[in-house]
Amino acid sequence: MSFLKKISCLLVVFLVFLNLICSEGIASDGEITLKEAINIGLQRAKEWNVNATLTSVNSVDETMGGSRGETGKRFNWFLFFIVPGTDDYVLIGISEKKITLFRPSKQSPNPTILYDEIKLDSSDVLQLAKDKYGLKQGKDWATGYHFTLDSIDGTPILKVYGNDRDNRFTSISFNAQNGDVVSAIHKLPYGGGLISKRIGTENLTKKGMAITGVVAGNNNLVVWGDKKPTQFSTTKQPFIEWSHNNGESWTELQANNYVTHAWFDINDQLYAATEKELWAGITSKSKGTKILSLDQSIEKIDYSISNHIAVLSNGKIHYTTNQGESWEQAIVPKPFYEVQISDNGDLVGLTEERKILQKTNDEWNEISMPNSNDEPLDMKVINNRLFITTQSGIWTRDLQEGNWRKIKVDEVVVKLIKKGEKLFGYTHRGEAIYSINTEDESKSEKVFDVGDSIVWDVDIMGDTLWIATIPNYSWEEMTVPQRR
Question: Which one-letter DSSP state was computed for residue 370?
Fold first, then answer.
């Protein structure tokens, strides 16, 4: 081989080696494994007390880039050390190889872990979890791979968290002394779907889906949500569908993004809000016309019977009294929990401090409560009437008058749901749903006992009550997946 060829080959090898070093440096600079974190923390803990002994370790979620645990390393770690025989303990936080938190305190003693008992590192158990269970990085929450170390029944247990092949939250536990699998569990959904309830009958469709909204028009029914939800996201496979035959069949509608709210106006025209946009006139053949686009997310939205619309976003209310042909703005005087708009175009807000404010001309004036010691849990405006729910009951008054009237209800309603001129209410923990009469003060009727369901929305069409529910999740043992 000529001298030039030898030099060329050596140069190629050198460049490849240099590239590998640089790639590793970029991926892991500042990131450390669980045992590396222990070495840093233990040295500082021994300076605090020579008898300090490890009790637990966990990685911490962050948005710093890096590998997010892909090689068993993370930027941020928390470590707990105790002094055996005492109630002294210290919490140590590590970020990018440096101690950023040192907090001594007192607590009941936890089981200790001797350093020599930890034979495996986070990188070791991650590779085992990938090889045996096909573990993938977590999404939406606890992003990437995460790791914890605890003493359970005298054995050091090293856990790795991620997602299984179906993107379900997963935890795999290993004996840190020998690498044996102690447990492998994942969060599986149960419940969720669209419930239709008639007198004497109850039916569940769209089972397992996260149905986050339902609305009934004159002859049409629309639902929206996520077909493949996870515990931490209902925007994985978003959809919006409508039915012309009381839910017997469904047609998927077009939407630019996941739908957060939808309603029919008095002419049965469908409106839908996405994260930052509002669309009108949606049909099976058209996604409709965009009537509002914002730079910041839509936080709250309301519409009146005459289809005046109010949208709360980034401290401003955007409102229209001509179906979106033109918009005006109002500055929110305090952070709002809820915003409503009446048939007369009046804006009403419920602040996070639980004060009710009504906009008159350019001023916001507080509406006094029916009882001085009461505070509103929630608020809605239907036509030109204000409805509030409190610990003492449900109250209503005309926006232009000062006299409150009480609506009879057997339980405390904590959340109100408005559907056009219809009003529903959840009780504590969503255990029951009431239909609230908005025409007079007659007693409200319980229409649904929730049971194990997690109810997100409700509407009624004819003699059928439609209830939107989302799944709950529970830890279940997982089996070794078959190779695909």
Answer: S
Q: What is the pLDDT of residues 264-288, one digit of tens each?
A: 999 999 999 999 999 999 998 898 9
Spatial separation of the C-alpha atoms in residues 146 and 160, rounded to whole Å: 6
CB neighbour list of residue 372: distance below 8 Å, 6 or more residues apart: none
State how beta strands 445-449 and 454-461 pair. Answer: unpaired
| pLDDT at residue number 448 | 93
Is the pLDDT score of 403 beyond 80? yes
Say how many CA atoms lie within 13 Å of 476 toward its Cβ: 11
Q: How far from chain centre, in Å, is Cα 157?
A: 29
Quote the tokens at residue 443: 């007693």
10: pLDDT strictly greater than 60: no
- pLDDT bin (cut points 50, 70, 90) of residue 28 is low
Q: What is the distance between the alpha carbons of residues 241 and 250, in angstroms, rounded to a whole number? A: 6
Contacts of residue 160, Cβ cutoff 8 Å, sequence gap at least 6: 122, 125, 126, 129, 135, 145, 146, 147, 171, 172, 174
DSSP single-letter state for residue 276 = S
Say which amino acid occupies 393: G
- In the predicted structure, residue 313 carries a pLDDT above the cut 80: yes
330: which 2 tokens?
């109002």
What's the pLDDT score for residue 481? 63
Confidence class of residue 361 from pLDDT cuts 50, 70 and 90?
confident
* Of 145, 126, 125, 149, residue with least CA distance to 42: 149
Instruction: Please name the amino acid found at residue 128.
Output: L
Residues in the chain: 484
Which residue type occupies 378? D
CA distances for 40 relative to 79, 99, 105, 125, 154, angstroms? 10, 8, 20, 21, 24
pLDDT at position 483 over 70:
no
Pairing of strands 309-313, 300-303: antiparallel
Average confidence score pLDDT of the chain: 90
CB atoms < 10 A from the CB of 155, how many?
17
- The rounded distance, in Å, linking the Cα atoms of 209 and 229 is 7
- Could you tell me the two tokens for 453? 């369901």
Give which of 172, 133, 182, 159 is closest to 59, Cα–Cα. 159
Cα distance between residue 143 and residue 146, in whole Å: 8
* Residue found under tokens 């941020």: 76
